[in-house]
TrEMBL record:
InterPro entries: ARM-like, ARM-type_fold. This is HEAT repeat-containing protein. Residues 76-89 have a biased composition (Acidic residues). Residues 35-72 have a biased composition (Pro residues). Residues 35-100 are annotated as: Disordered. SUPFAM superfamilies: ARM repeat.
């Protein structure tokens, strides 16, 4: 083989090899090298879900229970009754004192001890004592009587014409309390109602009392209709 043919053959082989490498690079490009990623920050551990520590149960109280109040014994009740009787007797005695201050104090104290005896004494003071303050105290104390007698009602009705305005007002206030505490239609209610109406129609009754009685009876009538 001549030198020219050998040279031509080598040239052809090199050309074929170059074409082959080009074809391989085109069809199968080289894979890029992976880019290193930054390391992720470590995930913090989740908080513990441990159960809360239970509170200690306090020990039971060692305080002693409060004892109930002692009940009154018969001897204590007798002593209390005796003390009240002594106070009432002393107040009744004060009504006969020449000192108006003593009579006034006695009339005020007897309001706390309503009884037939004190009721009668207060009614007498209401219609006879020369001091208006004493009569006024008697009229107020009679208002605490739950079941007044006819004499008491009559004494209070008469006091509606007293010369002193405060005495008249206190007497009417006690009668109003009696009327409010009495069942409508009862004998006592009719007695009180009739007595007040008679005073209201009497021109000798002071005007302030007649007007006040009118208001009281009107209120009673309105309450009866409801």
């Amino acid at each position: 083989m001549s030198f020219q043919r050998i040279s031509l053959l080598i040239l052809v082989i090199l050309s074929f090899a170059a074409a082959s490498w080009y074809l391989v690079d085109t069809l199968f490009p080289p894979m890029p090298e992976p880019v290193p990623t930054p390391e992720a920050a470590p995930t913090p551990p989740k908080p513990s879900m441990a159960q809360p520590t239970p509170r200690p149960i306090p020990p039971p109280s060692t305080a002693r229970p409060v004892p109930p109040p002692p009940q009154a014994t018969p001897a204590a009740e007798e002593e209390e009754d005796r003390t009240e009787q002594e106070e009432m007797d002393a107040a009744l005695a004060q009504l006969g004192s020449p000192d108006p201050a003593q009579r006034l104090e006695g009339a005020e104290i007897l309001g706390a001890y309503p009884s037939e005896e004190t009721e009668l004494a207060l009614a007498q003071v209401l219609n006879s004592d020369p001091e208006a303050d004493v009569r006024n105290a008697a009229a107020q104390s009679l208002g605490y009587v739950e079941q007044p007698s006819d004499d008491t009602v009559a004494a209070l009705m008469a006091a509606l014409e007293d010369q002193n305005e405060e005495v008249r007002a206190s007497a009417l206030s006690s009668l109003e309390d009696y009327l409010a505490a009495t069942d409508e239609g009862s004998k006592r209610y009719r007695q009180l109602d009739a007595g007040l109406r008679a005073k209201m129609d009497n021109r000798g009754t002071p005007k302030d009392i007649r007007e006040a009685i009118h208001d009281i009876l009107q209120d009673q009538a309105e309450q009866a209709t409801h």
